[in-house]
Amino acid sequence: MTSWRYAVSTDVGLVRELNEDSVFADGRLAIVADGMGGHAAGEIASAIAIDQMRTNFLDRGDIEDFVRAVEAANRAIIADADTNPERLGMGTTVVSVGLVATENGTLPVVVNVGDSRAYQLRDGALRQLTADHSVAEEWVRQGRLTADEAAVHPRRHQLTRTLGIETNVRPDAFPVAANAGDRLLLCSDGLSNELTADVIAELASAPHTLEESVALLVAQANRHGGRDNISAVLIEFDVVSAQPPANLLDDLASPAFASARPQQAGRPLKRGSSFFTWRSGLFVVALLGAIASIYVVFYWYAKSSYFLGSYRSSPASAAYVAIYEGQPGGLLWFKPTLVVITPYIFSDLTVADRKLVNADIVEPSAAAALIHAKNLDDHGRQVHTGTTTTTTTVTSTTVAKPKG
Ligand code: MG
Fold first, then answer.
1. 155, 178, 319, 323: which has the fewest C-beta neighbours closer than 10 Å?
2. pLDDT tens string 226-259
3. What residues does the ion ligand 1 have nearby, CB within 5 Å?
4. What separation in Å is there between the alpha carbon of 59 and the centre of ligand 1?
5. Any idea of the CA torsion for 234, 237, 240, 245, to the nearest 10 degrees?
């Protein structure tokens, strides 16, 4: 059976008033969750995530069970916000490593949502296992930015996936090929933003003990500014009893192929005896495939974005900034749907920002739209409380400022 030792540290940092990160580790499961949300709800979201994952993680479960534990955490955060309106919009990242059962033994598997990271350390060298779910990193994957550009891009902190925002969250989940003596570091962005990979590699590796390493990592992140909450869970494998099976790695690397194996299209063709049956069968299959593809492309395009708007529950109530899924104005028969009513009151925004809300600006995810809404609300508060200039001056200043 795979076994590990672990050390854990979490720190509020030097700037934030509250620590919204939550951490957990035992002999089978380790988790870092980085909570976010107004009205001090972030630490509630990250605590719910850890509580739910601990409860739903199965000792003899497989990788799908592990993913389901993350999905259960997502649903629990959404349900909590539904019954506690002051926590509306709270969310959390999660990065976790758990031991799942296989025929040969127990296998370490990493799951993640958001920009908290998992690194693997071997003989003093470091490799990042997780991909950040941020706007800048998505653009790197699409070839629109280089990794170096993404590292300093203003939208590198804007998340495209978090727990607590959308009902259908999709965690990344993959097994790790580990050796005895390897270490895995789970950390929040308060650590990875402050320290270079070289520094992390040095501090997280032997000859430092696990306890020394997590203390050094947190102390060094604070020395570099400590601008966010800092969390680290470091594990070291004593025994690794199972390695990822090749087919599991293949399936995870290319899930699109798993549902489109060529023999499925070929099977009905074998039954046809004549050339014309074969040809007409192929034509029908190709036609249906083309129609399905067009539908999928339209559906994907219609649902792939989010935008801000205003929402009031009745004509007499206040309007709130709301997040809609879909294309502004709709696309064919796909109409936008309301997904989140934020706690931000529309009339609290500056006049210019209210125009931005109504400008049909498309965001890549609900989380990105939520952060945009929060930025507009913050801006409204700053303008309303932090300046003595006239409304006219404030408005024209804001209009002149380019978005983003
Ligand atoms: Mg953070």
1. 319
2. 999 999 999 999 999 999 877 655 444 433 322 2
3. 34, 188-190, 228
4. 29
5. 30
